[in-house]
Each structure stands twice: as C-alpha cells, then as structure tokens.
Amino acid sequence: MAGNVAKIEKFVAEGQDIDERPFPKLEELVGEKYYTDECKQSTRFFKFDHGARGLRPTALHLACFTGNVPSVKKLIELGASKKLKCWFGKRVPAFNLDEVVDIEANPLEIIRLCRTENIYRRVLKMFETGNPNWKKEVEDRSHECNCAVNGTDPEETERVFYD
After folding, report:
1. How far apart (Å, rounded) are the C-alpha atoms in residues 119 and 110?
2. Which terminus of the chain is more solvent-facing, meaning fewer CB atoms within 10 Å of its CB: N or C?
3. What is the pTM for the complete model shown?
C-alpha cells in the first residue's frame, strides 16, 4: 500500500507470487486502521481476512485503490492478473444500522468505483486539503490507472468513463 516499486521488484525477484492473496494477519496490521485513520471510514474497503482467500485483494487491487500509477504499471509489467476479483465492500447507514454493501471487483472495476465514488479524493488527501481541482485530479488519476492496467499510453488513449 506504500507504493514502493523497488520493493515490489525485490519481492518478485525473491520468488513472491505477484498475485498472492494476503494472510488474515494483515487485517490486524493494515485493514481497520487504514480505513479509520486514512479514509475516515468513508470509502469502499477490502477484507484482508475474508473467509474465502480468493476474495482477498492482491497487490494490483491495492495499487488501483490507492491510485498509485507507478505501482500499477510495475505490477502489470511483472505479470499481475487483471482478471482476478476481490471482495470490495462499502458501509451504508440504513435505518441507523451499519449495513455493508459488497461486490466482487477486478482491478478495472476498482478504478471505476474509485472515480465514481470519489475514493481518490479521500485516499490522496484532496478532501482534507480542500483541493479545488480534486475532480480533474480524480479523473486524471483514474485515466492513468486504467491505461496502466490496459498497457496503453494515457496521452494517446481516449478518456472513456462508465458510471
């Protein structure tokens, strides 16, 4: 989640599976704290301890969620799967209950949701700093991430957003 491209390369060179799903212990280290402290529990979220290991996020899901274009590019270059899905939930207050609406999303779907639900605005601290250009920056980041996953040049690729 820190987006350290050199560490990504190092882990893969040491034999780390690029599409590895995390062990539940990561939930204690990152999960709840990240969404509470960094996102103020206002975004969709992953479950690193999801009961179905195949629905835990991969590094590519996380890079798409944080909008880290260099990490997305490196992960794709190293062979990360664009097709794997993970659980991606959202807390919705309903009748004073904390209901969770969940979906299974691949990396491109995560990018789309990050744009349509303004997740990058929170993750990149645009909300806290009162960035007046947040909408353009969210669209730019989304476009760059989409292009990184698809292996296309952002300058030569038409911007297409599906809501």
Report:
1. 10
2. C
3. 0.83
